[in-house]
């Protein structure tokens, strides 16, 4: 901090970063505030949401209310099943396709690859009407498979894995072949282990995307049995249901808690994964 | 010998590709084709296309003032969210790229909204915007102003939605700027310091131009998001009041699942697909030629 005016040039030099620090912190506080507020609201009796008093008595009542008013256990299980299923499906399907694009001579390969890349822009949710029709013809309405299947052949996954596979030296593949490995064994023993960082990055980005996805799961599900957390939360907190704000805050925290905790624990990996998955 | 081997490889590769091809056809190519077809036909029983009418559905859509309102909303939404969130993202990245007390916390604070589901974010913001008890009106009241109906006033609702979207997206874009800043050679800064270049002119003459590829990349993503993300509308406004916050994809959803008008939904979807095609062309031609990542 500058206290005197006699060091004018120096103080100017130092005061800019100080001002910047203040600005950075101010912005950070504004950015984290909504979440902190939701935290605060969830742990205090609902009347204090309106008459904000920082040291109002703490309570867990909002959580018990939320928990009893909606089948959150079911929603959790559904979301876990959905996210696990989608990620496993994506890993398998995208690995196979990426391997083909990286190492096999396929007629019209470049055109096919461009066709795959179209899906980077044409997401299942944009084609929501026709995808709904197809899902219903396949008998997938109101099933977790129905929520996840349209995302399994992910262009992003194929693209990222193909890029990674292409950087793996052929010598390793040849060595494995000399040892008598067939193609699938080569894929499993050489390519997959070497692409671990890509799987981790893509997997984390995919988990967070599907944990948070809303519109397609909303359309394709119509009962508690298959609804994931986001849809459950959306139904729960719709203004017309008349649930009070403190309970909504508690329910919101319940829905985001696992992902948020995972993020706080593995922040670096999450940030890296968004970066890796984003740059395409 | 080698010829049959080559054929074998081709077959094997095709088999590896098959599962992805089947799924992509089912949930991407086929629905795209049927959407286009549906937009050229009149609807019949259970929405099945009956009579070929060419571009008539488009004529009807373009004569509908609601469509133009929604399209205009989407344009305003894009113009309102994209430059603001990109500018904020760049500012955030510059902040946390430098030496800063509590940098880890600041970075986390900026990025956390990215991790939240849009629906959860909207739940939280819904309370801020609530007319009687909402935080924003409380603050206005403390300053002696009368409160406004943030989401209920047609003149304010879209701006309110935009503010929340900017909050949600800026931290995501920050990550890309931060990565780009960290890959910039430190020699540039050292050389500039030796020459006594001010921070301001260093930013505008060196940093900003070098970040151009990142800006273009972020811009493409932001453009896609502006036609794709509609989750918050379900909580905040349901497209209202009087369509003031209705966006293209939400309008598709409404037409298909509330009004059961699949033809109109298909026609609007084609419009969205055309927008996405323009964005994709932009990316694959301009962007890939001019930028080099890594």
What is the count of β-strands of chain B?
2
Number of strands of chain A: 0
Which spans of chain B have pLDDT < 50 for at least 5 consecutive residues?
Answer: none
Radius of gyration of chain B: 24 Å
Structural class of chain A: mainly alpha
Radius of gyration of chain A, rounded?
25 Å
State the assembly state of the protein chains: heterodimer
Count of helices of chain B? Answer: 13
State the secondary-structure class of chain B: mainly alpha
Residues in β-strands, percent of chain A: under 5%
In percent, how helical is the residue content of chain B?
over 70%
Give, in order, the helices and strands of chain B: HEEHHHHHHHHHHHH
Strand order of the largest sheet of chain B: 1-2
Overall residue-averaged pLDDT value of chain A: 85
Tell me the distance between the termini of chain B: 41 Å
Q: Work out the helix count of chain A.
A: 15
What is the H/E string of chain A? HHHHHHHHHHHHHHH
Main β sheet profile of chain A: none
Keywords:
heterodimer; A: 280 residues; mainly alpha; 73% helix; disordered N terminus; B: 294 residues; two-stranded antiparallel ribbon; 2 strands; MetI-like_sf (chain B); transmembrane (chain B); membrane (chain B)
